[in-house]
Design brief:
Blueprint: H1 8-25, H2 29-41, H3 43-70, H4 78-105, H5 114-137, H6 165-179, E1 185-189, H7 196-205, H8 207-212, E2 215-220, H9 227-238, H10 248-259, E3 264-269, H11 277-280, E4 290-295, H12 298-303, E5 308-311, H13 317-328, H14 337-346, H15 352-362, H16 368-380, H17 389-401, H18 406-414, E6 424-425, H19 426-435, H20 445-461, E7 466-467, E8 473-475, H21 478-489, E9 496-498, H22 510-513, E10 518-520, E11 540-542, E12 565-567, E13 588-590, E14 612-614, E15 635-640, H23 645-649, E16 671-676, H24 683-694, E17 702-707, H25 710-719, E18 729-734, E19 754-759, H26 766-772, E20 777-781, H27 794-797, E21 802-806, E22 813-816, E23 830-834, E24 841-844, E25 857-861, E26 883-887, E27 914-918, E28 939-943, E29 963-967, H28 968-973, H29 981-986, E30 989-992
């Protein structure tokens, strides 16, 4: 009680008021009044309880808010937000009750206040219950305050790739890169619809990859590469709460802070422009964390400084058929449909997106008539609309529309003149682009090539052209080419007549020749051409490899005044018509491999704009005097052979024309190729004369020449100063050899522009040393008189990137480091050694740090006395070696000799991917035990190595091994140091009998 005096009149008044209230509520008066009086008596008690419950609740709220501040980067749960809001509301209500109570204590409670006291006490009692209930809800130890941490992997529904090797290899490749601690960023690129997103989703779902990281974050980057949108997607994945904060830098800091000390994998799909990852919040150098990005553009991967590139190729025929069959379903089994269906798949050019769309269309075709009609429609596309194809065309045309300028677009369209999947030689294509005037405002041929390579790179970058398997070749797939032809049909400047590889025996009608700028009839069976055609706008005519085209009508070229590119190479023509003199705009003429063409027309000087002339391998095996009149020639390719020795003996040799200084008159000449038959030493005198003339050319930037002797080489290198210029490219063959090509270049993935081949020489010549010092590739064939290539001088061989040694009978070591004071072969990447009967070791003497430090490929064949490959100290230098092949070396007993490598780090040969061992009858071991990690080894091939009964693999090393190729009998004879190893490796075996 509050000690308030209560007289009888007050009680009576209160009782009367209560009676009225009870009457209104329809309640029992006695109990109602009693309860009200009890509330009034308990006012002080309820007030005390109210303050205690409020203090408890507000203390718990303080704990919750402290937890929130501690996990400020986490997203607070909606439940927690609602609880804190309710506490704020009830706090205000408690404050109002306290104020009302304190106000009542300042004055004496009168009779009219007894009801207020009771009501206030009751309200306090009820509020105490609410306070206690809220207090119970706000338990910090539950998940009420913050959400659960994000799951390590959020599985994405996606087609699996295990049954699609054409896509699954990319996952295998990326998985291998993810294991490499030195690889931080991986770029996956390829054209639209090729399957990049499917690959990225499968990477996200891969269990092995998930075990490598604490969290895998897969995000599709928006079309506009918005950092804000990308950050929001990452925040949602990480469950971070940054509501109300629009500062990108602050958000990036919070993301970075959350990823701190975590092993993360970011999978960024559909990256269309360069992203600065640190601006997003992705740390640059977190240990063991990785980023895989997928883009349509190769340049994006370069700009984002990826460590490894993975180019997604089109589906193989097998995978394409399998995918199409699965998506079409039961109608594929209709009688007679399969043969048609395979032709339908062929029209899809291995593009998963296109296969999907076409399969949807054909899924509805329930009889063979519809299938045949559908195939006809596909083959006529893009002339007629085909459901599914039009959608894909719009996808692909986006890449075309995305090109920066009209030059890139017209160069792309020009490439459609060649057949689908045809390997186009890059140098030839760039020459045609220049001859057509696409590369304008450029005078120098070298600059034009450089500009052309930039354009080509842009087309490759957006996958409108593809790199071929052949070095320095590109190709265009069927669908892209159809799109290009459709675009060109609507173009004023690039209207084409293209009937390449169609088996034509008769030329197109005269009407078809009209109004086109480009005609391609290459690779057909044409016997003849029209007498005359109206081709006023024709600028390109491709007739190459019409072998049966033996005669071109005299007036054929008369109405082609604008023709700039004429390609007749490989045709059967025996002569060129006089009307060729009408081609006053002709810039490039290809007559190479026209074996029946014995001479050039007399009036060649009319071709005053001609810049490119190629007559290699034709019947013209001399230096025609007409060439001396082509003063604008920039590029000349000719062959000189011994097929006219008979006419020389008769005193009628056309080589007498050399004295007329034909080559020296071509003062604008920049690129010169002269193929010389090296088998007959009679050529020395002739070639010396030519060499002196070549040395007078002042604009030469590229020379491919066969020098029959070192003396001829000396004439050039002492008379010309151009060949040492950094921009000068050369291929010099010295001596008599059977093959003019360079075998070592086949091992490179990029172009090598300075090569020296030296055959049948002896000892060390100063001119060879001089050229060797500038060469990137060196082939030494059947050389005598030296025991190692070190004798050419370490300073002369240290620039080379590729080296082939073949048939050198006196070679005992490749490098003799006994007297060396500096690293040897520090730039060498590829080395091939063949038939070296005295070779005992690769390296002799001390090995200086840096020697062979870039070597990636080592192949050794037929070296019967070779005892060791990795002598003491060599293996430590081979940190980049990826491919090792040893074949027919019958004395080798150990690949890595224990006596020479007693202390060997487990991480030796860290990048070795393939090991091929063939016909090594005495080979006992690769390495003595299982101590090496073989961290990058993917495959091992063993044949005819009957003494090799142990492999250096245990239960835990060589974790990236994908295959073991060998004979079944050899596998059964193997012994194992650890139980379980054989079982682990058995599934990787590919056996032959």
């Amino acid at each position: 009680m509050l000690g308030i005096a209560v007289d009888e009149s007050m009680v009576e008044a209160a009782a009367a008021a209560l009676a009225v209230e009870a009457y209104r509520d329809g309640r029992n008066l006695i109990s109602y009044v009693t309860k009200k009086l009890d509330y009034a008596d308990d006012l002080e008690k309820n007030y005390k309880r109210l303050t205690e419950e409020a203090d408890k609740l507000f203390a718990r709220r303080a704990d919750v808010e402290a937890q929130v501040r501690k996990d400020m980067m986490k997203r607070i749960t909606k439940e927690c937000d609602a609880w804190i809001s309710r506490v704020r509301v009830i706090e205000q209500e408690v404050l109002e009750l306290e104020n009302e109570f304190k106000k009542g204590t300042k004055r004496t409670w009168r009779k009219r206040r007894i009801l207020s006291r009771s009501t206030l006490s009751r309200r306090m009692a009820n509020k105490c219950e609410e306070l206690h209930s809220l207090w119970a809800e706000g338990r910090v130890e539950t998940d009420v305050v913050v959400e659960k941490p994000p799951e390590p992997v959020r599985v994405i529904n996606s087609p699996r790739t295990e049954n699609k090797p054409s896509l699954h290899w990319a996952i295998e490749e990326i998985r291998g890169h993810l294991r490499d601690r030195n690889v931080k960023r991986i770029g996956l690129w390829g054209t639209l619809g090729i399957g990049k997103t499917t690959i990225m989703h499968n990477l996200n779902n891969d269990e092995e990859i998930a075990n490598m990281f604490d969290i895998v974050i897969s995000v599709s980057v928006s079309e506009d590469n918005s950092i804000e949108k990308l950050q929001r997607a990452i925040l949602r994945r990480l469950k971070l709460n940054v509501e109300g904060n629009n500062d990108q830098s602050e958000v990036a800091w919070r993301i970075s802070k959350e990823l701190e000390n975590k092993r993360y994998l970011f999978l960024l799909d559909e990256v269309s422009e360069t992203l600065e990852l640190h601006r997003v919040g992705i740390p640059e150098d977190e240990m063991d964390s990785k980023v895989v990005l997928a883009s349509r553009y190769e340049h994006v991967c370069y700009d984002m400084e990826v460590d490894e590139f993975v180019n997604v190729k089109r589906l193989s025929d097998f995978d394409a058929w399998k995918m199409f069959r699965e998506k079409v379903g039961r109608n594929i089994n209709l009688p007679g449909v399969e043969e048609i269906a395979r032709l339908v798949v062929n029209e899809c050019a291995g593009l998963p997106l296109l296969i999907d769309r076409v399969a949807r269309n054909f899924r509805k075709k329930d009889n063979i008539n519809l299938w045949r009609d559908g195939l006809r429609s596909l083959r006529r596309w893009p002339d007629i609309k085909v459901q599914g194809m039009e959608e894909v065309l719009e996808f692909l045309k986006f890449c075309y529309d995305d090109l920066d300028d009209e030059t890139q677009k017209i160069c792309f369209l020009y490439s459609a003149l060649y057949p689908e999947e045809y390997d186009i030689f890059v140098d030839y294509l760039l020459e045609c682009w220049k001859a057509r005037g696409f590369i304008c405002d450029v005078v120098d041929f070298l600059e034009a090539r450089d500009r052309g390579h930039s354009i080509l790179s842009d087309l490759l970058d957006v996958s409108l052209l593809e790199r071929s398997k052949k070095m320095k070749h590109v190709r265009m797939n069927k669908v892209i080419r159809n799109m290009a032809l459709k675009i060109s049909s609507d173009s004023k400047d690039s209207t084409f007549l293209v009937k390449a590889r169609e088996g034509l025996q008769e030329p197109p009608t005269e009407e078809e020749w009209k109004g086109v700028s480009g005609i391609s009839l290459m690779d057909n069976k044409l016997h003849s051409l029209p007498e005359a055609v109206d081709c006023e706008d024709l600028r390109t005519l491709l007739l190459q490899r019409n072998h049966e085209l033996t005669l071109i009508p005299e007036s054929f070229f008369q109405s082609m005044p604008k023709l700039q590119v004429l390609d007749l190479h490989g045709c059967g023509c025996r002569s060129l018509p006089s009307s060729i003199s009408s081609l006053t705009s002709l810039t490039a003429l290809y007559l190479n491999s026209c074996r029946d063409l014995m001479e050039l027309p007399a009036d060649m000087k009319a071709l005053r704009k001609l810049e490119v002339l190629d007559i290699r391998g034709s019947g013209i095996n001399y230096l025609p005097v007409q060439i001396g009149h082509l003063l604008q020639l920039r590029c000349l390719r000719i062959s000189l052979s011994n097929s006219c020795i008979g006419s020389l003996i008769q005193g009628q040799s056309r080589f007498a024309q050399i004295s007329q200084n034909i080559i020296s008159r071509l003062r604008w000449l920049e690129e010169l190729t002269i193929d010389v038959d090296p088998h007959n030493q009679w050529w020395d005198g002739v070639v010396k004369t030519i060499t002196k003339e070549v040395a007078t050319l002042t604009r030469l930037t590229s020379l491919s020449f066969c020098f029959p002797s070192v003396d001829c080489l000396k004439i050039f290198v002492t008379s010309s100063s151009l060949w040492k210029n950094f921009s000068f490219t050369f291929r010099f063959s010295v001596g008599y050899h059977e093959c003019t090509s360079y075998q070592i270049l086949e091992h490179f993935e990029y172009e090598i522009s300075r090569c020296l081949k030296y055959a049948d020489g002896e000892g060390v010549d100063h001119a060879i040393k001089k050229v060797l010092a500038e060469a990137d590739a060196f082939e030494l064939i059947r050389h005598k008189g030296i025991s190692s290539i070190s004798e050419f001088g370490i300073e002369s061989i240290n620039k080379m990137r590729g080296c082939l040694i073949e048939g050198c009978t006196d070679i005992e070591f490749i490098i003799d480091g006994t007297h060396a004071t500096e690293p040897s072969l520090g730039c060498l990447e590829k080395m091939v050694i063949k038939n070296a009967p005295r070779l005992a070791s690769i390296f002799a003497g001390p090995v200086h740090s840096g020697s062979l430090g870039r070597l990636t490929t080592l192949s050794i064949y037929k070296c019967p006395k070779l005892l060791m490959i990795f002598s003491c100290g060599v293996i430590q230098q081979l940190s980049e070696l990826q491919h090792l092949r040893v074949e027919e070396c019958h004395e080798i007993r150990e690949i890595i000799m224990r006596v020479e490598n007693s202390i060997l780090e487990p991480g030796s040969l860290p990048k070795l991917k393939t090991l091929i061992l063939i016909d090594l009858p005495k080979l006992r071991s690769i390495w003595v035990d299982n101590s090496l990690e073989w961290a990058s080894l993917e495959g091992i091939t063993v044949y005819m190595c009957q003494s090799l009964i142990r492999l250096p693999f245990g239960k835990s090393n060589a974790s990236n091994l994908r295959y073991i190729k060998g004979q079944r009998m050899w596998w059964r004879m193997l012994e194992w140091e650890e139980d379980g190893t054989e079982g682990r490796l058995q599934s990787l075996c590919i056996f032959s009998q």
